[in-house]
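We include the pair:
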Amino acid sequence: MSLPFQSAVVLGAGLMGRLLAVTLARAGCKVALFEAGSADAEGAAARVAAAMLAPLAESAVAPVSVVRMGQHALGRWPELLASLAQPVFFQREGTLVLWHRQDAAEASRLARVLANTGAQVPELTPMQTLDAAAIATLEPSLGQRFAQGLFLPGEGQLDNRALLASLLATLQASANVSLHWQSPRAPADFSPGTPGQPDWVIDCRGLGAKPQWNALRGVRGEVIRVHAPDVTLQRPTRLVHPRYPLYIAPKPGNLFVIGATEIESDDMSPASVRSTLELLSAAYAVHSSFAEARIVEIAVQCRPTLPDNLPAIRQVQPRVLQVNGLYRHGFMIAPALLDATMELLAHGHAALARSFGMATSDNA
């Protein structure tokens, strides 16, 4: 993609900031990336996420617009990953949804929601209803623990931390990129389009942008990483729960990400006993060998969220874009936001964003 400008500043080196910086640099743009934290993305919501790419499964809590973004991203991730400096774990083995007998009513409601989503987005691979034998065929280690389940073919996941590291290595290898760590900046620090200044400023700071976007709020999530060499799961497994969707996502090296609570709070204090017990109990209920797993990390992060829980791209002044509000869907929808943002920068309009039902201001 050719760009009608030569330089840009990207604020924030989380998932969106890194993706945009890499893509802009590849298009021949000189990019300066400013991050308040360090290169390891320790303060980014993307570092804590499970990085599941599950548009149909997420329709339990997300509207059709997000599902369409997720479906778009499933096709784009292999292309994006293939161009990076280091390999990143990626799979599309589908999503398994399970439930206990006492949650059968909630599971029936979920199945109706997913069927309705499938009718609205026919390009999704239809879900399949499973009995105990079919579950055991998909995941032999689960045996006959569950009598019923759902299988959502084609959904995927990737390794979030490997991706962040690979994006960093790609940026470090680019002659078009300058990296500025421990360097907090805001859009007001620049005068884009004037002599000696960048042509564009793109703000991807997540909750760091709250002073300039008052509607942003934090939604707290707690995630546990465990090492469980005695557990074998081939794909992300979700457990129907009366309060929030729980999942177990297998990663390379016998690591499993268990999450995620969802609390309307920007509190970043350590995880509560209640949340920890619920997450670990859910994992044990899926596979008893999690009892001997070792807890590697209990992490807390707040996802940047707008009032409608949807992402948005907005231009509040000439040559300044803000990309934010990825909520709990960051990895699932990031390629859609990337492509919509690049379209806006290249052509001055955001037809792709509008096709997703995404809020934009594209009066460039």
In short: Residues 16 and 339 are 11 Å apart (CA to CA). The first strand starts at residue 7 and ends at 11. The chain has a mean pLDDT of 94.
